[in-house]
From TrEMBL:
GO terms for molecular function: nucleotide binding; oxidoreductase activity. Keywords: Oxidoreductase. This is Gfo/Idh/MocA family oxidoreductase. Residues 7-127 form the Gfo/Idh/MocA-like oxidoreductase N-terminal domain. It comes from Paenibacillus nanensis. Transmembrane segments: none annotated. PANTHER family: BCDNA.GH03377. Residues 137-276 form the GFO/IDH/MocA-like oxidoreductase domain.
Amino acid sequence: MSNGNKIKIGIIGAGNIGGVHAQEFSKLSELCEITTITDAYLPLAQQKAAQYGIKTVAGSPEELIASSDVDAVVIGVPNQLHAPLAVQAIEAGKHVLLEKPMGINSEAARQILKASSGSDRIVMVGHQMRWEAVPMAIKEQVERGELGKIYTAKTGWFRRKGIPGWGTWFTRMDQSGGGPLIDIGVHMLDLALYLMGNPKPVSVYGATYAEFGPKRKGIGTWGRPDWNGHYDVEDLATALIKMEDGSTLSLEVSWAVHMDTDNTPFIHLMGTEGGASYKGGTGKLLTEKFDRPLETPLARPENDEGERARLSRHFLECIQSGKQPITSALSGYTNNLILDAIYESSRTGHEVILNWDLN
Ligand SMILES: NC(=O)c1ccc[n+]([C@@H]2O[C@H](COP(=O)([O-])OP(=O)(O)OC[C@H]3O[C@@H](n4cnc5c(N)ncnc54)[C@H](O)[C@@H]3O)[C@@H](O)[C@H]2O)c1
């Protein structure tokens, strides 16, 4: 690392999330400098470079990864490119912050995990919800034992009319790996497992449906539709995940559904001594006192710097200290293993036993 002690960052992908990372890392200029950016559509990379004062626009991801002016690579491109680019970056000696889902499937995630486990480079997945104020407060209570044993949990996110980028990579199986399950479900799965204390998942039963997308219904506002493209992913998924310690997690998500939904992500943790609920940035702790139910509200503090700032700082601190990020490659692989099993269970109609053999 040169340039004083500042970490030099290169961003691959100047789309929606690439722009978010550029904005967040540019606020941490005492710790890092974004030196390089690239995108398959170079004018977009040039525009972001001008906006955030990034000095170099690389002609390709390969050029960016090979650059000696880059210590850490941020990957914000369609899902099928995560594993090839992450493995290439790790092998070139770069640290990697990778957007979710870690892989387009568990095989891709396994390749990243293998590359990272043979290396001292930091590999972190961008699950920013773990750094939201309310989930952090819930995690603290869980770790203090206030909930007792969490024996079951429910999580999900029902969007009534929220199919992103119809016809673009979002709705093409070969580029995204799936619909709402891999897009927003992976955030909820990741956060719920983390708050439950990372129990080991052992089996999955699931079902997926596509009732809106193929009919070009349920279109949302994220991403611009490409009506020349196609839609071959699910628009709703439901699953039950069983853990080695006997606990269970139910996961339900949709991009589009006829349902009375407020379109917000939720988690309910049910423990022997208490419960906790998270709903779209707010939350509650649920206990009992003198035989009466007691609710303690949790809210995001005023002037909160936000989860994305904390995520970005965590990545930089892990690089500096060499400690494992909380959203490690192993946690990304675990998520992908479960997602694959939900799709397989839906296809076969049977429960799927997770295969943890990494070889
Ligand atoms: N953490 C979150 O909440 C969150 C939110 C949105 C997206 N994401 C993830 O970020 C990733 C990108 O999503 P997005 O919404 O930014 O999509 P997007 O379509 O807005 O941006 C993707 C960019 O990648 C570029 N690209 C495609 N192929 C490329 C290649 N071979 N080399 C270089 N650039 C290439 C495209 O030109 C585009 O600008 C996805 O994996 C998505 O799941 C995460």
